[in-house]
Amino acid sequence: MSTSPAPLLTVRDLRVVIGDSHILHGVDLDVAARGTTALLGRNGAGKTTTVRGILGLVPRTGSVLLSGEETVRLATHSLVRRGIGYAPEDRGVFATLTVAENLRLAERPGAGQPAYDLVHGLFPELRQRARQAAGTLSGGQQQMVAIARTLLNGNRLIIADEPTKGLAPKVVTEVAQVLERAAEAVPVLLVEQNLAVVRRLARHCVVLADGRTAHRGPAAELLADAGAAHRLLGVGRAGHDGAGPSPAGASARPAAHPATRTEEAEV
Amino acid sequence: MSTVVLLTLTGLGLGALYFLVASGLSLIFGLMDVLNFAHGALMSIGAYGTWWAASGHLPGAGPGGAAFALAVVFGTAVGTVAAVLLELAVIRPLYARPREQILATVGVGLAVPALLSAIWGADARPFPGPAALSGTAGLLGAEVPFNRLVLIAAALVVLAALRLFLSRTRHGLVVRAGVEDRAMVTALGIDVRKAFTLVFAIGGAAAALGGAIGGLYFGSVDPEQGTSLLIFAFVVVVMGGMGSLAGAALASVAVGLVQQFANYYTTAGLGDLAVVVLLAALLLVRPRGLTGRLA
């Protein structure tokens, strides 16, 4: 009998209250030590807040173990320096800084040579546009900068929040390819609405609903179960009751649920 | 013609003084969202530190030549230390509590002049300075006091040094990025609080230098000097665009010139009103200031 390696990141009872809003009511999730773990859920389920809570970018309580070390009391910069690369939902690119300056900011003095060869190998365009203000880049190019920053430091974990959001299909494919390649070396926690990307990249998934963990398990299993996918993610069988099975993948489409953006696109 | 030259250089000198105070104020607000109402007090501390040293209390310092330069360095250093202490002891514990921060800096801004009054009295004290700087220089037919030129030169040096710092150093890069998105800077593993302290130190040093050299311009020091100048520094920051060094420089020149010309060609005192009108007119046309940065 084989045992799977201990999770790299273990989150338990993560709660976030901002002002009068109780956004997370107790999220549990594990990020596997290998491959990609997808964090899924309908819009407003608390995916981005979970990521921000893990990183300490919003006030939170609960437990966040990174390789067994409790980090919930650490400041964001201290936690990130322990080996986390973060590509946020809005890409977090500094618009008035050049591409080279955006990358230089992600360097961690004293943490070894930054992996510019790797980054420029994956994104040759970033070398060509090194002196260009990042604010003048296209959405896809800005996403390249955001992902490149996560790959520069030999991180232990990459967190990518909706990296394909708003990108052209061709760029979605490129981003998925890069994340797939990155995940061969570094575990990835991927927040994603595009189920085709999830299907391609993720081994495991965690589904949030109303600020709580609603489901955990193999990603392929959830996506193959049209009923569960419809119930948890709101995809597939638009116009149907969602109770019965539907051909996985081929029929997955945004459902009639107005609060749902989860979608299936070609990658 | 000579009047226009004199008014222009005097206005630029005053603008230079505003810039020395406003540059730090602008960077502090841009990076930290802190409205530092104690910034004028840092200028006063610089002025009094220089006055104290140049009055013979600091060995090696005095009113002439290199001894006066040492007094200016001392006054600037005292202002820098005060700024760092202000950030560490008052601002940092109140981080993310803007109302309390404002009240605390207003409190410090009131307490420092009161403390200076209690120690050295409320009356203005003659400011000792090198004899060479008390004269005038003939420029395009006008006799321009040297102290204006010293102020302009100091502001240009500070502007160049700040631009080099921001564009060429990693700390400067962190400050520029932090002005744009502070949270993302921390998410890259950078302790942005160190940048806060550094920016306070730089801002305090520039304001204290303004106080030190401003003593030459005014010919005296008094406890309220910094506080009374602070309002114009805030006008400069708003006009220039929050967090913009170039904007602060442009706005400083505009405010200094408008104030001088309005005071001379209308009634004395209308210069201040003219500055307010200039601010209102600019904000009507460009609500985000000269450089388009609201915050």
Query: Average pLDDT value of chain A?
Result: 87
CATH superfamily of the domain at 9-93 and 157-233 in chain A: P-loop containing nucleotide triphosphate hydrolases
- Let me know the average pLDDT of chain B: 92
Instruction: Quickly give the CATH architecture of the domain at 9-93 and 157-233 in chain A.
Output: 3-Layer(aba) Sandwich
Oligomeric state of this protein: heterodimer
How many beta strands in the DSSP annotation of chain A?
A: 10
Helix count from the secondary structure assignment of chain B: 11
Q: What is the level 1 CATH name of chain B?
A: Mainly Alpha
Q: What is the CATH-assigned architecture of chain B? A: Orthogonal Bundle
Largest β-sheet summary of chain A: 6 strands, mixed
- Might you state the CATH topology name of chain B? ABC transporter involved in vitamin B12 uptake, BtuC
Q: Pair with the most extensive interface? A: A-B, 23 and 17 residues
Task: Report the biggest beta sheet of chain B as strand number plus sense, adding barrel if it closes.
Answer: 2 strands, antiparallel
Subcellular location (chain B): Cell membrane
Transmembrane segments (chain B): 6-27, 34-54, 66-90, 102-122, 149-166, 195-218, 230-257, 264-285
Pfam family, one (chain B): BPD_transp_2
Membrane topology (chain B): Multi-pass membrane protein
